[in-house]
Design a protein that fits this description.
Shape: globular
Order of helices and strands: HEHEHEHEEHEEHHHEHHEEHHHHHHEE
Helix content: 40-55%
CATH architecture of the largest domain: Alpha-Beta Complex
Number of helices: 16
CATH topology of the largest domain: Spore Coat Polysaccharide Biosynthesis Protein SpsA, Chain A
Number of domains: 2
Strand order of the largest sheet: 3-2-1-4-8
Length: 382
């Protein structure tokens, strides 16, 4: 009874944190006014083997209602038709500049090096890094810049809408935002008078040019697989203001096109956490199990295996109810598939499977593979 009461109390605190996060999370708004004069914004797109996504991404960027921007696309040694597609689109739009990536130096992750090359070529006073698998509403640039100026941010990032194609993706992908927003006290970090790390998601990173180079750009995080998180840490360490906002009305991302790619993506994230602190990963996974998965097993046991006290049954039902209510709050905010709420245990189980595999790879020194590149201890990449 005491243990179940502790779990219920913990879930209530998670619900309170989530409520404060959603209430305080600012959203990109369609009706923002243009700054006068409108500064030049460099939209920087690293692309490696993105022939399935790059045309849609560039099409959405070409339709921006912001009057002063350029688009730089770096073909990061793709093995498919990415470069040819970019070249073809660029011939009809002088705002688009195709670049060919240099060979990857030792000690760099591929994405960090691609972004660094893009930043060196950019002319804008603002640098916006977006992934090639994102698409953007026409008001995205205007809204994001207005928000960044209003909040005086050194780095603006946040939560794009995550698209899902298959049923397994619809079940598993929404789990990520759920865990972040129930555990991470964004509402407190972003209102603190002291500069503190917030949350950066690499699908969308907007910097004032001088702030990006003040921290050393992507070279400062060149060996980090989770370069977006560490860019936020560097901004905070140098006294800058990092802001996370709700990007979902203006930015969507189609991260994974199949279950295999989704599995690799989850492994990359968890492997990076294991590289930093195996103890922290163990604590996180244990907490995720006891707070977000075990209550469903307890409910099944109470209903179908043993007949416990009515008080215990009420506590277990309240636990499951709070979890499902929190899932509904998050999924509704970011327009995620409703089926993910009811299949929550399956989505979380996929995360545990990914964690187990990532830890095994880390233990045997096998490294992690992403975009056909292997990062291991020998590559000096974490």
């Amino acid at each position: 009874m005491l243990f179940q009461g502790i779990i219920a109390a913990g879930l209530f605190l998670c619900l309170l944190n989530l409520t404060l996060n959603l209430k305080n999370l600012k959203t990109l708004r369609r009706g923002e006014k243009l700054p006068e004069p409108a500064p030049l914004v460099s939209v920087l797109v690293p692309a490696r083997d993105e022939e399935a996504n790059i045309a849609a991404c560039l099409d959405s960027l070409q339709k921006q209602d912001y009057p002063n921007y350029e688009i730089l696309v770096l073909d990061d040694n793709s093995t498919d038709g990415t470069g040819a597609i970019v070249q073809s689109i660029a011939t009809g739009d002088s705002r688009i500049r195709p670049l060919q990536g240099e060979p990857l130096p030792e000690g760099w992750t591929g994405k960090s090096f691609a972004c660094y090359q893009l930043a060196e070529e950019a002319r804008g006073s603002w640098l916006l890094f977006v992934d090639a698998d994102t698409t953007h509403a026409p008001h995205m640039l205007r809204s994001a810049l207005a928000q960044a100026l209003r909040l005086n941010s050194s780095l603006l990032s946040g939560f794009p809408r995550q698209l899902a194609n298959s049923l397994p993706q619809k079940i598993a992908i929404p789990v990520l935002y759920f865990i972040i927003l129930t555990w991470f006290p964004l509402w407190w970090l972003q209102r603190s008078k002291r500069t503190r790390p917030s949350l950066a998601i690499g699908q969308f990173l907007l910097f004032p040019r001088e702030e990006y180079w003040r921290i050393g750009g992507h070279e400062a995080v060149k060996s980090r697989i989770l370069e977006d998180v560490w860019l936020g840490v560097e901004i905070s360490r140098h006294g800058g203001r990092q802001v996370a906002v709700d990007l979902s009305p203006a930015v969507a991302c189609n991260m994974y096109h199949n279950v295999g790619a989704m599995f690799e993506g989850f492994i990359k994230w968890i492997y990076s956490v294991a590289s930093l602190s195996p103890v922290a990963l163990t604590i996180m996974m244990a907490a995720a199990y006891f707070f977000y998965l075990a209550p469903f097993y307890s409910l099944w046991r109470e209903l179908f295996v043993v007949v416990g006290s009515s008080e215990l049954r009420i506590i277990v039902i309240s636990q499951v109810g709070m979890i499902l209510f929190m899932r509904w709050l998050v999924d509704s905010r970011f327009k995620e598939p409703f089926i993910s709420v009811f299949l929550h245990p399956l989505g979380l189980s996929f995360l545990f499977l990914s964690a187990f595999y990532a830890v095994c790879r880390r233990a045997v020194g096998a490294g992690v593979r992403w975009k056909e590149r292997l990062y291991s201890r020998e590559s000096s990449v974490e």
